[in-house]
Design a protein that fits this description.
The complex is a heterodimer. Chain A is mainly α. Chain A has a domain at 61-115 and 155-285: Orthogonal Bundle (MetI-like fold), CATH 1.10.3720. Chain A is 73% helix and 0% strand. In chain A, helix 3 packs antiparallel against helix 4, helix 4 (100-112) packs across helix 7 (154-180) and helix 7 runs antiparallel to helix 10. Chain A is flat. Chain B is mainly α. Chain B is built from 15 helices and no strands. Chain B has one domain: Orthogonal Bundle (MetI-like fold). Classes of the chains: A mainly alpha, B mainly alpha. Chains A and B meet through helix 1, helix 3, helix 4, helix 5 and helix 7 of A and helix 1, helix 2, helix 4, helix 5 and helix 6 of B.
Chain lengths: 291, 281
């Protein structure tokens, strides 16, 4: 077989997958950039070039800033907390511990359940007066709180659900990594009489660094696309207190049908994801095994 | 396996959690499973026990019946099953071909093209929903199951996983097949695909659970009972707010999750190992 026919074969094998990849990832990303400089077509009027107007609107839009800061807070809370819980879960399940398979099942369970379904159950937990958390609060003599209706608490309530949903998923990656670590590290540490904490901090943690970066990147991406539960629990409210970027993008695009502005908002999300991509490239470039 | 038997010989403070760890592990597990336990409680008991606990509460299936009759869940189930199965079948087909090209062919631009594939790991189709919705409009596919599935037919994750697996297939096996006169596609079918079975299983479980649970894109695309998957159907049902009580909503919630939940409880080991396998690569 000559070289060029091998080439053609390879391209033919790739073609079907690339039709869909380009059609729904690369093309829309570029088209969105152009759309973000155009006005929204309304009542038969074709879109016209408006330059940076959509971005100007964005800068002056308090709901955008609210959603962005909410999203940053959401990321800042969900990422470290779910990762720390994931490591703890993985270490426990990797150890010899009574009821290990129950523990593993319980941690992992939220991963396989639809977010839209479990959010319904969490609503009940948060319900004022007779919800589970408030029953517990009242039992120890504290006043009932309206978690989902209070602007101070709604974002936190949303965040807790996200952590609950994600931690067990990340545990799996840590567990997989822990199980590939050579038992000789453990034996050596044993002989040296190292403590559990010292063994984790000086041996397991550095060896887990590639996993931590992998999980971190996934957690970052998830922090900007986990919005399903908002639809069920708060609808972004009260008064946008629990709105995140993707949720607001949905509202602008499919409730207000403002395509031009929605395209500008999409560009913000794309910029954030591109930054995550660069971060990953930068982190993986460095040798991460030993700092 | 070998590693596990090895460590048991050295069982000591480094393999056994301390009592503090044990308490922490169990407390966390209980908190983690509590939503499901509550859902089971509320769904299988009469409405008056939804918020109060009592050993004498009678069991009932009324809530499931009421939920099933209150919304077209049978149709939603059929929609989700068709959607999930067809997405998976097309993903496996398209991504096998692409992964094979990346793993075993040398061609101009292979690195650039592979980077273009990886972009989809960062930018999922639902991030670009505004533009992708326009694409569906111009194709006349809004409010169809086909339109919901379309953006997911090519999966960067599948291409990536399969490419890694295909690269580990020994050259000798391929050469032996060539000696016997097998052509390129026969080699793919008889050598590569059988050796990649665990990867196919792993990806399939991840794909099925992802698309069973997917919500935002189907919400945007579907607006009739005929095209609505379970997740969107459940949301329409539970947000209708016509005096539907908690017990019925939790019953509907459990119905929606039941196939995945039962599958997970039955094949727990395969599920966990599949997600692990998908993560290591």
């Amino acid at each position: 077989m000559n070289l060029s026919s091998r080439h053609i074969q390879a391209y033919l094998l790739l073609l079907p997958a690339f039709v869909f990849l380009v059609g729904f990832t690369h093309y829309p990303a570029i088209a969105t950039l152009f759309d973000s400089f155009m006005s929204t077509p309304r009542a038969g009027r074709a879109p016209v070039f408006v330059g940076l107007e959509n971005y100007q609107v964005m800068l002056e839009d308090p709901v955008f800033w609210k959603s962005l800061t909410n999203n940053l807070l959401f990321a800042l809370a969900t990422i470290p907390l779910s990762m720390m819980l994931a490591i703890a879960m993985a270490l426990w399940v990797n150890d010899k511990i009574a009821g290990r398979s129950f523990l593993r099942m319980s941690y992992f369970l939220p991963t396989v359940l639809p977010m839209i379904a479990v959010a319904n159950i969490w609503i009940f937990f948060y319900t004022p007066d007779y919800g589970l958390i408030n029953q517990a609060l009242q039992f120890i003599g504290l006043p009932s709180m309206n978690f989902l209706g209070d602007p101070q608490l709604a974002l936190m309530a949303i965040t807790v659900v996200a952590i609950w949903k994600e931690a067990g998923f990340f545990m799996i990656f840590y567990l997989a990594a822990l199980q590939t670590l050579s038992p000789s590290y453990r034996e050596a540490a044993q002989i040296e009489g190292a403590s559990r904490w010292y063994f984790f901090r000086r041996i397991q943690w550095p060896l887990l660094m590639p996993t931590t970066i992998f999980v971190l990147v996934n957690a970052l991406i998830n922090a900007f696309r986990m919005v399903d539960h908002i639809f069920v629990m708060t609808n972004g409210g009260p008064n946008n207190a629990s709105s995140l970027l993707l949720f607001y993008l949905y509202e602008v695009g499919f409730k207000f049908w403002d395509r031009g502005y929605a395209s500008a908002l999409t560009m913000v999300l794309l910029a954030i994801l591109a930054a995550v991509g660069l971060l990953q490239f930068f982190l993986l470039d460095k040798r991460t095994h030993y700092r | 396996m070998r590693a596990r038997t090895h460590t048991t010989m050295y069982a000591s403070s480094l393999t056994q959690a301390g009592w503090l760890g044990k308490i922490g592990a169990w407390l966390l597990a209980i908190v983690w499973i509590l939503p499901l336990v509550y859902a089971l409680w509320a769904a299988f008991h009469p409405a008056e026990y939804a918020t109060t606990f009592s050993w004498s509460a009678p069991l009932t299936l009324e809530n499931f019946l009421a939920a099933w009759q209150a919304a077209p869940f049978a149709q939603y189930f059929a929609n989700t099953i068709i959607l999930v199965a067809s997405i998976l079948a097309i993903q496996l087909f398209l991504c096998t071909l692409a992964a094979y090209a990346f793993a075993r062919y040398e061609f101009v631009g292979s690195n650039v093209l592979f980077s273009l594939v990886l972009v989809q790991l960062m930018v999922m189709p639902e991030i670009l929903l505004v533009r992708n919705y326009q694409t569906l409009t111009s194709l006349g596919l809004v409010d169809t199951l086909f339109g919901i599935g379309l953006p997911y037919f090519a999966s960067a994750f599948a291409i990536f996983l399969l490419r890694q697996t295909f690269k580990t297939v020994p050259k000798e096996l391929v050469e032996a097949a060539q000696m016997e006169g097998a052509n390129t596609l026969q080699i793919l079918w008889h050598v590569y695909i059988p050796l990649a079975k665990p990867t196919y299983l792993a990806f399939s479980l991840v794909s099925v659970s992802h698309h069973w649970n997917n919500f935002l894109w189907p919400l945007v695309v579907s607006n009739s009972v005929e095209s609505r998957p379970l997740t969107v159907g459940l949301q329409v049902f539970s947000s209708a707010d016509q005096g539907i009580d908690w017990s019925i909503i939790t019953a509907a919630t459990l119905l929606t999750s039941a196939p995945l939940l039962v599958g997970f409880l039955l094949f727990q080991r395969q599920f966990v190992q599949s997600f692990m396998r998908a993560g290591i690569k």
